[in-house]
Amino acid sequence: MRVLIFGACPGARYSYGKVARYVGAGLAGLGYDVSYVCGDSDYEVEIDGRRFRVYPDAALRTPAGAWADSMAYYSVRLKADFVLAIGAPWAGALHDEMLTFNMARRSSPDLRKVRLVAYFSFDWFRAPNDIKATFKFPHVVAMPTEAERRYTAVPRDRFVKAPHGVNGEVFNPQVEPLQLQYQFPLPERPEVVVATLMKNHGRKNWALAAFTVAAMNAWGIRAVLLDLYTALTATQDTWNIDAILKGAADFFPVVYGGRGAVAVLPHRAPSSAVELAHGFSEEDQARIMKAAHMHILPTRGEGFSLAVLESLALGLPNVVTDLEVLRESFGKFRSVVFARRANYYVWPSEGTFFYEPDFDDFADKAIDVAEHLDEYAELAARDAEAAIKEFTWERTARAISEALERSLRYDYTMFEEDSDYVAGWGRRWE
């Protein structure tokens, strides 16, 4: 059975790229013939000792930017049995394209046998109708948690739960930590290195991470924030960092160290600092994170969080926002501490619902972990072993295989009664 993975390249250094890489390798291990359709060039990539062909989607984009032509072209050319879409469900590359592809199947005998399966994570609390419509296009939808199914109203018979995995050979408590070389001067070495793996996006709440570490310092704990992001871009992810850190420095001094430059904010000798690291491999990521004492994620919304899972596998205690998705995935682990959330709110620019963490409670929880590091480290060491056993990419691949096999039960997923969703991109709310 031939599978085309569409939407995320296996070599991309961000979460969807990692998911595409490991899911593809896992499906190949189960006997599927796997290829990728993504990016701008035709090449081969080696994953876990296997070679995979990557076909360019860019060559066949329409003037409007749709990629459905690529999906249809390669499905017919390669005699695909399945198209597996991986990525953000609201992205143009996977919304309009899945719609167009599904409609093309109605008139093309060569495409009618191709089953469309999607593997998404959904990080909002509530989905508007146009996003819910996205989940009508695939035959079967796989998601990491049951909570996401409820948020998106995917029918149970077309849903497969497929949690993400972790590479236990890379992320484990025995990893040799990187010896941190700070780019900035500190009057004293930090007592606690606080890691956070996130991009500077409103949903991720990078500002609260910075303010949490500043609060720890104000409490008397010498702490430094180590921020890791695998695809940092100066324009998209650093645009307001200086402003955030200046705000944090209003009640405790901060030094900001970025790649290639050091910017010392105009305050007295700093005791709190931020170090940004980016553009690294999984192995480097594991070594850098292992140099930290704890991991925090004051997020407003998550679909699963590889960051929490990978830090958990390394044996780091976590402080995270008490979101249903995170509670479902990691609630059993005693080294994962959940901070209260406030009421949900609408993100104005996107019309999407996120939860706002309670800053005071988040900071209190982080301070408590920092003050009892030995106790939490013991808990985290036990949790790491359990997490590595439970969350494997092999398990993920088996779940995706179940989704592929289940899709064979269905013909079309779009029916006449769904026409208002198709036509009404803007009819957002029930």
Keywords:
430 residues; alpha/beta; Rossmann fold; 2 domains; eight-stranded mixed beta sheet; 16 helices; 18 strands
Query: Helix tally?
Result: 16
CATH C-level label of the largest domain: Alpha Beta
* Count of domains: 2
Rg from alpha-carbon coordinates:
22 Å
Helix content: 25-40%
| Basic shape | globular
Sheet with most strands? 8 strands, mixed
Secondary-structure arrangement, i.e. CATH architecture of the largest domain = 3-Layer(aba) Sandwich
Sequence stretches where pLDDT stays below 50 over 5 or more residues: 255-271, 419-430
- Examine the coordinates and then state which fold CATH places here, giving the name of the CATH topology of the largest domain: Rossmann fold
Hey, roughly how much beta strand do the residues contain?
A: 15-25%
Indicate the structural class.
alpha/beta
Task: Find the CATH superfamily of the largest domain.
Answer: Glycogen Phosphorylase B
Q: Mean pLDDT, rounded to whole units?
A: 81
Task: Give an overview of the whole structure.
The chain has an 8-stranded mixed sheet with strand order 3-4-2-1-5-6-7-8, with helices on both faces. About 35% of the residues lie in helices and about 20% in strands. The protein contains 16 helices and 18 strands.
